[in-house]
Amino acid sequence: MNGFLRFALIAGTVAVATHLLAVGAAPRLFMGAALRRIAETAGGWYRLHHAPRVTPQTQQIVRSSPDIAYTTCALDLSAGPARVVVQPSPGYWSAAVYAANTDVVMVRDDREAGGRALHLLVVGDRTPLIARPDEIVVRAPGDKALVLVRRLAPDAASFAAVDAARKADSCAAVEIDVG
Questions:
Q1: How many CA atoms, within 13 angstroms, populate the side-chain half-sphere of residue 131?
Q2: C-alpha 21 chain-centroid distance
Q3: Average pLDDT, 10 consecutive residues per value, the chain (179 residues)
Q4: Which residue of 1, 60, 65, 135 shows the fewest CB atoms closer than 10 Å?
Q5: How far is C-alpha 8 from the geometric centre of its chain's CA atoms?
Q6: pTM of structure
Q7: What is the spatial order of strands in the sheet that 82-86 belongs to?
């Protein structure tokens, strides 16, 4: 095998391996770091964090919208499932669950909720189902997940109304009785 062919084969192999590593590992690495930071900000896993109104001084996420009130809850599903309740609020709102690889696992909005609270049971791969009749079961692949709630709040008055509604949201670990 001549020198150029050997170089091209090695360079191609390195390029393919680098690409596969970046595509496969980068989302998990970035989401893992984000989940740890969100959990730290909220004071732990399974705890809601209601972000303040987005301004240039409070912006923590690149390109976050100043018209949206954000609420997050980082989940460590290896410790058990989570019950999440998102209360209705004035105007548009949505709730999404993201897996540890950044895949969107579930999205619901105010229209789909029909003016009612959204009740979610977020479970991992190995969690037995213990859902209540009013709950939507969301199975997240892996052991970590993120709940992100977005509520439209384009001005101070609407942010105050949305902020009051989101204070009634909840995110909590579920105890599993194995006995």
A1: 14
A2: 23
A3: 77 77 72 81 90 71 79 91 94 95 93 94 79 86 93 93 94 75
A4: 1
A5: 42
A6: 0.81
A7: 136-139, 118-123, 82-86, 170-173
